[in-house]
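Journal club prep, notes for RB
We'll compare a predicted complex against what the paper describes. Inputs for the uridine-5'-diphosphate-glucuronic acid case:
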Amino acid sequence: MYKIAVAGTGYVGLVAGVCFAEMGHKVTCVDIDENKIKVMKSGISPIYETGLEELMKKNYEAGRIDYTTDYQLAYQEANAVFLGVGTPELPDGSANLSYIATVARQVAESVEKDCLVVVKSTVPVGTNDKVDRFIQDFLVNDVHVEVASNPEFLAQGSAVEDTLHAERVIIGTESEWAENLLKKIYAPFDLPIVSVNRRSAEMIKYASNDFLALKISYMNDIANLCELVGADVQDVASGMSYDKRIGAKFLNAGIGYGGSCFPKDTKALEHLAREHHYDLKTVKAAIDVNNVQKTALFKKARNRLITFSGLKVAILGLTFKPGTDDLRESPSLDNIPLLLDQGADIYAYDPVGVKNFADIYSEGDFSQGSIKYVKSVEEALLNANVCFIFTEWNEIKQLTPQQYKKLMRTPLVFDGRNIYPTISMAQEGVEYHSIGRKT
Ligand code: UGA
């Protein structure tokens, strides 16, 4: 059992902290936000994540996890400090490392015994070398502090499961001491551990995320070609998936990838390559395809309808994927302003994303068009002239063609997630447009 401090209580930090506690370590999660700390102490998770709250409560009651704003107290006694703070994108596509630097300095000024600083946040290759030097510069006490890289591979919506049953744990270290300590911390998880140097670990994270982004953009590119030549991208993906070298996952064409990771990490790697005067053509192509893909469905609908002015437009799904209330880089944020510009009267439904969306677009009238948030898919669809599907939530997947036909004024559906068989929609008389498939 080790004393672990975790800096940052977002998806990466909080989930890591809770899972370390679940494995028997004594964890203190640190955040600068007093309110957030209070909420977490009361057993409430600040993020929507399956299974997280239960584990928070269980481990808090067992005394294995606590939450604090007092970083000094948390860091001074820790065997390891895990950093899960954000590295948001700067306007030029590079990663903002100011949160990392702040925590690194706090650690350097607080630690009173040997301590491993483990960076979980996604950072450009070489950053952890800099963080290590930075910490040595500010170290106050005569103790050994070293930095390790331990990138995170959890996906939102399945974060706890992904952490407890990860396919691999990547540890990037520069000494046997650091490698052994991290291996011991992860021992209770009983997962495959890949031990490499710090820079390779940092690169594994970017190379993995960008490969997946590339895979999705490739399928979106193929989908657009399928439409032109009369092939069906879902059949194509299914045929490809039998080849184990390709695999079955991340072959779904759709409205483009969103979220806090793929858009940011593709741009960050491209930026890193540019800094080294290297033209990273593949990743650049993934970014370009994705930018176009996000509004391709809207363009299709605009061609079909000419204008949205005075039309009731049902929007099903706002978040960047199901299982999360996160809206970052969600395709809904690209499409809703375009629909409003065209005077659409939007009736939007999402099981958990409405609160966050309403913080950006409050309910009411705009200079053109309007937005109303509704509590059910049926309410959104009732008397609608057209429907857009942006997120494949289960309750949306379970809708039948008959329901579209019965509820909508004109059963015209633009589906960015290829949820339904085209044939069943056609049989029921629903005009159905999706991605990479015949209408
Ligand atoms: C992604 C990675 O999957 C995680 O391994 C990684 O740890 C995480 O980024 C991160 O860097 O923190 P996440 O962004 O939570 O996780 O979500 P994904 O499930 O990967 O989905 C990303 C986007 O791709 C979503 O918009 C999703 O709808 C889209 N997608 C996914 C497709 O369009 N098609 C697919 O076949 C799969």
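Talking point for the session: The mean pLDDT is 96.
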